[in-house]
Amino acid sequence: MIKFKRIQSKLFVSYSSLILVILFSLGISFYFSTAHVLKKQASESNLQLSLNLSDKLDSQFKYMDSIAERVISAQPVKQLFFSKSTDTEVTILHNKWDITSMLFSITGTPFQFYQMNLFDLNGHFVKFGKEYDVHDLDPNIVRSKEWIQPVLQLDGKRNISMPRLNDWDNSESIIISLSRAFSEVFGAKVDSIVEIQQEYKEFENLIERSVNPANDQSSLNFNVYVYNSEGDLVYPHQPGNTNLKDLSPFYWNSIQDKTELHNTFTIKNSYNHGSESVSYTRSEFTGWTVALIQSESILLEPVINFRNDLLFFGIIILFITMIVTFFVSKSLTIPIRRIRKSIKTLSLDTLNPRLNNNVSLNELEELNQSFLDMCDRLKSSLEETVSAKSHEIQARLFALQAQMNPHFLYNTLAIISIKAENNNQDEIVEMCHNLSEMLRYIAVEGSKSVTIADELDYMLKYLELMKIRYMKQFNYDIDIPEEMNDIQVPRLLIQPIIENCFKHAFTQKPPWNIAIKGVYTAQSWKITISDNGTGFDKQTYIQIMDKVNNQGFKYGEEAESLDRIGLINIYYRLKILYNHNVIFEISNDHNSGAIITIGGSRSDGGD
Questions:
Q1: I need a surface site. Which of 68, 192, 332, 337 has the fewest CB within 10 A?
Q2: So what's the pLDDT on residue 382?
Q3: Contact of 485 with 453, CB cutoff 8 Å
Q4: pLDDT per residue as tens digits for the range 9-51
Q5: Cα gap 175→353, rounded to integer Å
């Protein structure tokens, strides 16, 4: 056997090593040469894209800045803005019309911005663009805006804000504004601001159209980030995205120390442990930095796919090599392997193996025939043993099935006698009928299973007799779906559990309650019997569960020690019918009483 393995191994290793060396050499040389070219082309393309995008953003802000400068430098606009007219309402309306007309002449139409606001610290406020109005605000409201003081401190220089909610209305629109401070007289202390607003979605659309003209998000293989001069993330503006918050500082830290206005470099991402290409452009006008991040694994995906295809075809070739090796050594190794496999998987279900070893080696044929003869003898011996044990178990089941608690018979006859003395003929007839039907039910020979409907009928007769005995001391509730009536179960399955309630559970004062509930699903059925008695004591519970869980326990070994048709008897009779799909659970209710659930799979016991 060892010799055959050596031959097969040498053939496999020789062919496999040659193929692996060829594939590895071709794959490595192609991968590195192609990867270098792709990286260079992608870096140049991404750098050019970042330059174009930065230029487009600069153009937008330069336009906004030119509007702000023209407004500040327009002396008529300043005179009307700073005029503190207290004349009639008509005069005030004329002033509003004049300042609006002048702003129209400066900006022209259509507007390339969202809103223009002119205001001073005293609350004088002019709206122009999306809304037109001239009114006064509470000065405290103006001074409360956090971005006002930084703009005033720049003393007329432009200030570009981060994306934020519009301060002056309730639209909750996100805007970016360019602001300049100015004064009524040149050289005086600045106390007024012109703010040119643009909706953030305009910048967002500009960026997305620039990086993806086809407007197909699935085609993007890189991420775009835009930072202001302080490293705060301008785009994408998604506060709920914790991933962006985690990654954007990482990329900014790798860019901020670079002195070049635009460049491309490679970094090692500590988050995903992969290499990434970073192309950035820093604007001298806005101070914003546009960064394009591209994963090298995505960039090299075509090369990686080719490498994987090469490996796939290599595996196919290796598989063909294995087949060749297999057929070369088949005549020597297959017969013994089949015999070994049959011995390893030998069980009661596989005692008739079909090896069919058509070989020309006499020794293997003799070994094969000896193995088959051994299996035949083993099967005959096991069948005899199983048959004898089956008859023994059935005999015990018949004996247990024929049992009936003599005390129950004595008590029932005594009650009938009392009823006769009191001339209760109708109740006597009913009790005699129920008792005779119960005796007939348990006297049936054979181990043929019955339906749940038969078991319920037998149980009801027992309960009616117990109802007469205990009168109003106990109640019962039965809820069994009609679909369960035809399910096959062992005879005397439910009534013994009810009987145990009266014998062992109901030791406290009445009233006593018994509930029988059925559950029927597509896979299984269950019947749960619960009472309000004393429940299982710890020792009894452990004893029952040890026998249920002990797979080595053989039914009937302790039957002589049982003083009743007990739960173990019910469990093993269910197990004979439902094999390993039997349902058997016992527990104590958290209030009082015991809960017993029995059942099985619909595919085993049979509907």
A1: 337
A2: 75
A3: yes
A4: 666 677 667 777 777 777 777 777 777 777 788 888 889 999 9
A5: 81
Peptide bond into 163 cis (omega under 30): no
517 — alpha (psi -120 to 50), left (phi > 0) or beta? Answer: beta
Mean predicted lDDT score pLDDT of the chain: 79
The residues, any chain, with a CB within 8 Å of residue 266's CB and separated by 6 or more, are 275, 276, 277, 278, 296
Alpha-carbon span 311 to 106, nearest angstrom: 67
Using alpha carbons, list the distances in angstroms from residue 392 to 49, 395, 489, 561, 605: 88, 5, 20, 17, 22
Q: Which of 192, 168, 174 lies closest to 182, judged by CA?
A: 192
Among all chains, which residue has been given the structure tokens 């037109």?
132
Instruction: Write the single-letter amino acid at 481.
Output: P
Q: Which residues make Cβ contacts (< 8 Å) with residue 505, sequence separation at least 6?
A: 531, 533, 534, 535, 593, 594
Rg, the chain, Cα only: 46
pLDDT in the model for residue 560: 42
Domain definitions of the chain by residue range:
74-202, 402-601
Average pLDDT over residues 125-135: 87
Q: Distance between CA atoms of 25 and 160, rounded to whole angstroms? A: 56
CA–CA distance from 546 to each of 529, 539, 542, 586, 593 (Å)?
A: 21, 11, 6, 12, 21
- Provide DSSP, 473-530: GEEEEEE--GGGTT-EE-SSSSHHHHHHIIIII--SPSPEEEEEEEEE-SSEEEEEEE
Locate all alpha helices (DSSP H) within 183-300, ordered by sequence.
Answer: 200-211, 242-255, 296-299
* Crossing angle of the two packed helices 301-344 and 362-401, in degrees rounded to 10: 80
The whole-number pLDDT of residue 577 equals: 81
Higher pLDDT, 532 or 93: 532
User: β-pairing, 192-199 with 164-165?
Assistant: unpaired
Q: Which residue has the higher pLDDT, 163 or 322?
A: 163
- Asked whether the predicted pLDDT for residue 198 surpasses 60, the reply is yes
Residue 206: pLDDT above 50?
A: yes
Q: How far is CA 203 from CA 59, 170, 172, in A?
A: 11, 21, 17
Residues 521, 409: Cα–Cα separation, whole Å: 38
Question: Residue 158: phi, psi to the nearest 5?
Answer: -70, 150
Helix (H, G, I), strand (E, B) or coil at 264: strand
pLDDT (tens digit per residue) in 146-163: 999 999 999 889 999 999
Considering the domain 74-202 in this protein, what is its CATH number?
3.30.450.20
Task: Look at 37-41, 329-333, 498-502 and tell me which has the smallest mean pLDDT.
Answer: 329-333
How do residues 350-372 score in pLDDT, each as one tens digit? 666 665 555 555 566 677 677 77
Dihedral through CA 464, CA 465, CA 468, CA 469, nearest 10? -140
* Two structure tokens written together for 326: 């297999």
Q: Do the domains spanning 74-202 and 402-601 agree at the CATH topology level? A: no
Question: How many CA atoms are closer than 13 Å to the CA of 339, on its beta-carbon side?
Answer: 19
CA distance 191 to 149: 10
Instruction: Count the neighbouring beta carbons within 10 Å of the beta carbon of residue 368.
Output: 20
- Which residues touch 298 (CB under 8 Å, ≥6 apart)? 221, 222
* Mean pLDDT, rounded, for 570-574: 84
Asked if 228 contacts 255 with a C-beta cutoff of 8 angstroms, the reply is no
